[in-house]
Amino acid sequence: MPDTKAPIAKRMAAATVAVALVVLAIKYYAYVLTGSVALFSDALESIVNVVAGLVALWAVTVSYKPADSDHHFGHTKAEYFSAVVEGVLIVVAALLILNEAWGAYWNPRGFEAPLEGLLLNGAATVINAVWATLLIRLGRTHRSPALSADGRHIRADVVTSVGVIAGLAVATATGWTVLDPILAALVALNILYEGTRVVTSSLSGLMDQAIDAESDAKVREAISLNADGAIEVHDLKTRLAGRAMFIEFHLVVPGEMTVAKSHLICDRIEDALQELFAGATVLIHVEPEDEAKQTGVPVL
Q: Which GO terms describe its biological process (predicted)?
C-alpha cells in the first residue's frame, strides 16, 4: 500500500531547496551592498542550507522506497545519513566563517549602505523563520529526521541572523567596526554547536535508538489495556529507523489457551498500537505461562 505521506515529504524537501536559494540570493546581495563579514558569514551558512536541502531531498526520496529483496525493512534510515551530512556541512561552514572573521578582526572594514543591507537580511530572516517552523512541525508529524534536521538548522540560522542584525545595527550607530568580525565568530560558534547536535542525534538513530519516554509510556498503556486474557508482557523493546517504528515483546498466555484465542489478543494489541503510531511494525512472541517472569508490562 503506497504511503500517502511520501508526496508531501518530497514536495517539502524540494521546496526547501528553492527557499534556501532565494534566501541565499538575498543574503549574498546584502553582503555585496555592505561588505560586512558578519553578513558574509550569514550568506555562507545559506549555501550550506542549499546543499543540505539537496541531500535531504535525496534522502527523503530514498527513504520512501518500498522494502525489497535486499532491504526487508525498507529504506527509512536513509534520512539519518542526510542529517549526518548536514551536520558535517554545518561544521565546515563554521570553520570557514571563523577563518574569515579572524582576517577581518585584524583588518577591520567600514560598511557601505548598512541600512539597505540590514533590511534585506531581515527579510531573508523572516522567510527562514516561517519555513523553519513549518519544517519542524511537518518533520514531527511525519517522523522525518531529514525534515526535522533541516528545520532545526534553519532555525539556528534565524537565531544567528537576528544577532547579526542587532549587532550590526549597534556597530553602524557607534562606528565600532570591530563588532563585525566578532559577530561573525559568534555566528560560527553557534552553528558549530548546532552542527554537533544534528550529528549526535542522527548517529543515535543509526544505532537503533529506542523511542522517547512519552511514546514508550503510551506503548505500555496500550498493551496493558488491550491484553485482556493474557497473563503478562515482558521483554518489551522498541527502536526507530527514520519515521519507521518497531515494537516487539513477549506475550505470556495460559498454557491451555488455543492458538486462535491468543492470536485475537495479538491482533487487538497490534490494532491499538498502530492506531497510536501509524505504520508501526509490531512483533509479538507468544509464550505459555511457565515462561512468566513477573516483570515488564502489567496486564489490566
A: intracellular zinc ion homeostasis
What 8-state DSSP symbol labels residue 289? Answer: G
Q: Which three cell numbers, joined as nine digits, stand for 113? A: 549602505
Strand segments, DSSP code E, in the chain are 232-241, 244-253, 281-288
Ranking 5-9, 190-194, 246-250 by mean pLDDT, the lowest is 5-9
Full-model pTM = 0.61
Contact assessment for residue 48 and residue 90, using Cβ atoms and an 8 Å cutoff: yes
Secondary structure of residue 11 in the 3-state scheme:
helix
Q: Are residues 184 and 233 in the same domain?
A: no
CATH number of the domain enclosing 267 = 3.30.70.1350
Using alpha carbons only, give the angle 22, 152, 27 rounded to the nearest 5 degrees.
25
Residue 176 and residue 150 in one domain: yes
What's the DSSP call for residue 34?
H
Q: For residue 134, give the CATH number of its domain.
A: 1.20.1510.10
For residues 59 and 56, what is the distance between their CA atoms, to the nearest angstrom? 5
